[in-house]
Amino acid sequence: AGGRRRVRYPEPALAARAARVLRDNDTGAVITAAPRLYPHMWSWDAAFISIGLARLDVQRAIAELDTLFAAQWRNGMVPHIVFTENDAYFPGPDRWGTDEALDGPRHVRTSGICQPPVHAIAVRRVLDIARRSGPDDRIDAERFARRIWPKLYAWHRWLVEYRTPGSSGLVAIVHGWESGMDNSPRWDVPYDGVHPGAALPPYVRKDLRNVGDPGERPTDREYDRYLWLIEEMRRAGYDQRKIVANSSFLVGDVFITALFAMSCDVLIELGEEFGQDTDELHDLADWAAKARDAVAASCHSVSGMARDRDLRTNRWLDTQTIAGFSPLLCGGAPDDVQLRLLSLLDSDRWSGHPDLLAPVPPSVSPMRPGFNPRQYWRGPQWPVIVWLFTWAFERRGWHERARHLRDGGIRLTEDGSFGEYFQPFTGEPLGSTEQSWTAAVVLDWLC
Ligand code: 9YW
Fold it and tell me: Is-contact 179 171, C-beta < 8 A?
């Protein structure tokens, strides 16, 4: 495997190209997630984008996160899309029908679901970068961190109050899009329980116009389910209690739960530094501990891999994907489980697969039946996921591992395409190119 010749930009040229992608995707108001495919602001993309931007312009990085949090719902939810005027993406704000939602923001149009809570991690990173970059940037970033802290706390509180139902302790999602890993095989079983009704209004997909091969995107069958869930939520008026009680999809997401635990830790550090309310700091410590316990409790007794839980049927979802390594991100699993996961990650089932162009974990193991090296979250490698592992490993003190993953991430992206995801054996960029978050994490790796 490995066939065709790829361009390899030296690091300074790669960094310059990444910076240009972020500049080119800047509408003046937001940095869009991608130029044609995703002409709006996505929640977790904006967090990663701000990390890349901080290397170029701390003010611009702060503005990006301020824009996202200006769209925060009054109940605390940070919406998964903040819409621009562009109508090249479907479903847009009219289909979401959030304008009448009681808790929605007043001055911007947004979707009605959320995405993974990585924003505290971004604020921490922007602050650290600003402190190294000079006194003015430091002062601005500190002011910003102080100002955004209560909003981050409200966002985390929303996840606990509305989205941690039942006893698993896992943070629950009501749509695969909330996981950020839309069509991952993690969600195949729960989506089998979603039955689009005859009342599903007709629609036309726009995403297929912007990729070379429709096989790189989710299928129509999957889209029908995505749209049906929106229909259910819209009918519930985006009332979270009703949605969590009734929607046909409710899954405890172990990867989000691990990210939540880490983000709570970071928020505690920031809160201590900036003198935030001690009761709120205690809440965060409590939430982090419970989230870690939930991740550890999900681990399969033989493989050690962490599992999502279908909260509608009360069953563990055994599908093995990159999310199974969640305990390596947040810690908290017993030592023997952690060792098993580390050796699995290094093995030929994952990062050590002999045919990989870059030794970083794909979204699904190449050894798994159903692995598709070209299709979205069903096999390709995603630079942004690799970045999360490098960040977490660094924080856990695993410097050698973090460096190795970072080098692999550069190997994957040094063709300068800034692909949304990559074919693991050839390194062919798939989905969109000039994807903002890919450019952002590459910049962070290079600086
Ligand atoms: C879609 C923007 C988003 C990411 C998601 C990714 C994809 C949007 O793109 O979803 O319509 O398919 O799955 O994680 O935030 O980059």
Answer: no
| Spatial distance between the Cα atoms of 355 and 191, rounded to a whole number of angstroms | 32
The whole-number pLDDT of residue 4 equals 61
Which residue blocks in 274-423 are alpha helix, DSSP H?
278-297, 326-330, 335-346, 383-395, 399-413
Q: What is the pTM of this model?
A: 0.98
Q: To test the ligand 1 pocket, which listed residue (42, 68, 111) has its Cβ within 8 A of the most ligand atoms?
A: 42
Distance from residue 44's CA to the centre of ligand 1 (Å): 9
Q: What is the ipTM of this complex?
A: 0.98
Asked whether the CA dihedral 185, 186, 189, 190 is positive or negative, the reply is negative
**Catalytic residue flag (residue 420):** yes
Return the residue matching tokens 């305990």. Answer: 327
CA proximity to 420, closest of 72, 12, 32: 32
* Secondary structure of residue 283 in the 3-state scheme: helix
C-alpha to C-alpha distance for 229 and 322, rounded to whole angstroms: 25
Helix (H, G, I), strand (E, B) or coil at 149: helix
pLDDT in tens, 265-298: 999 999 999 999 999 999 999 999 999 999 999 9
pLDDT of residue 95: 98
